[in-house]
Specification:
This protein has about 290 residues and is α/β, with parallel strands linked by helices. Helix content is about 40%, strand content about 15%. Strand 1, helix 2 and strand 2 form a beta-alpha-beta unit. It binds nicotinamide-adenine-dinucleotide.
Length: about 290
């Protein structure tokens, strides 16, 4: 699915370039952040392969809130920049919400500006948060009629849980949104025809917590130690402790029970970066006054 959408993005980007129009992503990063470097690298690589210009805007760790916003305003005003992403986390002394609000909503590649989040209430997803949109697109790709289905979303963050809950509500699902204070999580997950899990806790959802034949979208990304034959953590070829990436759902036993499930890695992740670049191309088209 990600590949099909990527081919459409490449075609649209080529058409814009052929008319001499800009289509580009500015990636704003404050300080060196090893944890977000992998995401930045994958954006850069995918931009190159799809014909979208990538501008790395590396800012010092010591930058002030005002200077950061000034830089964002400069990018907003530049006709060469059609999409902007602010890499998180920012240093704790900076206010993320205020910085995100400085991004022009029409260039908001991640769909995190309050205007774009607010539009979701009206069912308008021009610049929807990429991860929520990735989960939603995967669900829609099954062609299952969602009307009247029970949908449980575990996690209520601004970028995943809340927006995906609104998207599913828009399709007339009966939506339950769970979070850290939910008293009996299994009660809600067991009822779900569609279960979306976005928490960040490996093994949170076990097989006895899902309904037979359900659809499960695992958004979580967790690094867990790989056990060795002696029960201790295995070592890599270089002798370092070995880790692997898993989701929030206990994949193998759950997969035996359900009709649909996304793996981690390889499920929501590749779709998320694809949705980011689709937002960039759509923003460029809209910015150049073209119909979508
Ligand atoms: P977050 O930390 O902002 O939110 C976590 C949510 O989980 C909160 O709503 C919290 O109340 C809830 N929660 C915590 N413990 C819980 C529990 N025991 N039971 C029920 N709810 C609980 O996280 P986020 O930014 O929404 O990300 C969630 C996960 O998705 C993380 O693992 C993150 O790495 C991953 N993620 C993946 C992608 C991707 O592209 N695949 C993108 C973004 C985030």
């Amino acid at each position: 699915m990600a590949n099909t959408i990527r081919a459409e993005i490449a075609r649209d980007a080529a058409a814009l370039r052929a008319e001499g129009k800009f289509v580009s992503l500015a990636c704003v990063q404050v300080g060196a952040k090893p944890e977000s470097q992998m995401y930045v690298n994958s954006q850069k690589k995918l931009c190159a392969s799809l014909g979208i210009e990538f501008h790395m805007v590396q800012l010092p760790d010591t930058i002030s809130q005002t200077a950061l916003q000034h830089k964002i305003h400069e990018l907003n005003a530049s006709p060469e920049i059609t999409g902007i992403i602010l890499e998180l986390p920012l240093p704790s002394r900076l206010n993320t919400f205020i910085a995100q609000r400085a991004i022009d909503p029409n260039k908001d590649a991640e769909g995190v500006h309050p205007v774009n989040l607010g539009l979701l209430v009206y069912g308008i997803a021009h610049h929807a948060p990429c991860t929520a949109m990735a989960a939603y697109q995967l669900i829609k790709s099954t062609n299952v009629d969602l009307r009247g289905l029970e949908c449980t979303v575990v996690g209520h963050s601004q970028i995943v849980g809340k927006p995906v809950s609104l998207m599913m509500l828009h399709d007339f699902c009966t939506v339950t949104t769970c979070h850290i204070a939910t008293r009996d999580l299994a009660l809600h997950t067991r009822r779900a025809d569609v279960l979306i899990v976005a928490v960040g806790k490996a093994g949170l959802v076990k097989a006895d917590m899902v309904k037979e034949g359900a659809m499960v979208i695992d958004v979580g990304v967790n690094r867990v130690p790989v056990p060795g034959p002696d029960g201790k953590q295995a070592l890599t070829e270089k002798g370092k402790p070995a880790f692997k990436t898993v989701g929030d759902v206990d994949y193998d036993p759950v997969a035996e029970k359900v009709a649909w499930i996304t793996p981690v890695p390889g499920g929501v992740g590749p779709m998320t970066v694809t949705m980011l670049l689709r937002n960039v191309v759509n923003a460029a088209k809209r910015g150049h006054g073209l119909n979508l």
